[in-house]
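WARN retry 2 of 3 for item q-0093 after timeout on previous attempt; input resubmitted unchanged.
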Amino acid sequence: MGDDATGEPPTTGRLDQSTMQMIGRRAQSHRLVESWEFVPDELSPRSVEISLHPTLYPQSVTTARIQIHWFVTGDYYVHYIEYSEETQYQCRWDRHPKTNAPRTHFHPPPDAGEAVDSHIGTHPLAVLFAVLDWISERIEQL
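OK item q-0093 returned
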């Protein structure tokens, strides 16, 4: 953790495996979600990977997934990636210290570009369902 007296930002800390497991289990209840798993595996998780139902997307999208890293400090990285035969579409919601962006920020599609302010929240389930709502809107636009 960082030292408030020195003004240094706190580090993200270690992964919060119990929160990541809760996120995966709750994600399973959403209509967009096909499955979830720890990657690379449950013994040494580095992220939660949520696979989305490919049948909900237009035929041009071959697969779509969300990768989530959640830390004991409450910081996170939520990466949405959509694959088609020719391209990759991606964006990311982050909460971590960053010198040139707000602590909670968004890297917009199509290539997870330059960070902008985000008001997505800090509670794991609020973040999860806000992202799933965003993806639902994305699918409707497609």
